[in-house]
Design brief:
about 210 residues, mainly alpha, 10 helices, globular
């Protein structure tokens, strides 16, 4: 029973729509501006750097806290339950109960989970993400590339079978949540985030990663 309650709590924490709240603080619904995605990159384009940083930190915390703290509270002494709590947090972010089961793409929340489960893997993924972002200027390309490498890095760093399986599933999930970005990338239509000024509020089509 305690495990089920903590899993539900992880989902509720993940469901907190950080970027939506940031937009509402400025009388905006981010679903109606920029890419329409509720994530850090769209927050940056519409609201600027400071708001995006808040979104990133909180969304990472939504994954990190349940995956780190809840296994110490459930009384089960089963380390792999951290994966369950992390998955529930990611699910909450992507399908938020507070937004009619819609939300962001889960990258930042998944980052928090990976920090808890496989910090070395997460460090490598972060370096790859930064490298791709600086090279291409495209957030979605950076996220997809880093996510693709995550299960391989986890395997070769002996992260443990449950974590490697989680990383493989996460990689596929990131590809799925970025399927529209992949289509735009294939057509050369994906927007760059670096080197551009903040998006105007009436922008209809922008990159929507994180």
């Amino acid at each position: 029973m305690k495990i089920a309650l903590l899993a539900a709590l992880a989902y509720l924490l993940g469901s907190i729509p950080t970027s939506y709240v940031m937009g509402r603080l400025r009388d905006l619904d981010l679903r109606e501006h920029g890419s329409g995605n509720l994530g850090a990159s769209n927050t940056y384009r519409v609201l600027g750097v400071a708001a995006a940083l808040v979104v990133v930190v909180v969304d990472i915390g939504k994954g990190l806290f349940p995956a780190t703290a809840f296994p110490a509270w459930d009384g089960a002494a089963i380390p792999s339950l951290a994966i369950l709590y992390g998955v529930m947090a990611i699910a909450g972010h992507v399908w938020s109960v507070f937004l009619s089961f819609s939300g962001g793409k889960g990258v930042a929340t998944a980052t928090g989970v990976l920090i808890a489960l496989a910090p070395l893997t997460m460090l490598v993924a972060l370096l790859v993400w930064l490298g791709m972002l600086l090279t291409t200027g495209i957030v979605s390309a950076a996220s997809i590339t880093a996510a693709t490498l995550v299960p391989f890095v986890a395997y070769f760093t002996d992260a443990g079978a449950p974590t490697v399986i989680f990383c493989a599933a996460l990689s596929l999930f990131v590809w799925w949540t970025h399927r529209e970005n992949l289509w735009r990338l294939s057509r050369g239509e994906e927007k760059r985030i670096l080197g551009q000024r903040r998006a105007r509020l009436d922008t209809d089509q922008e990159d929507g990663s994180a």
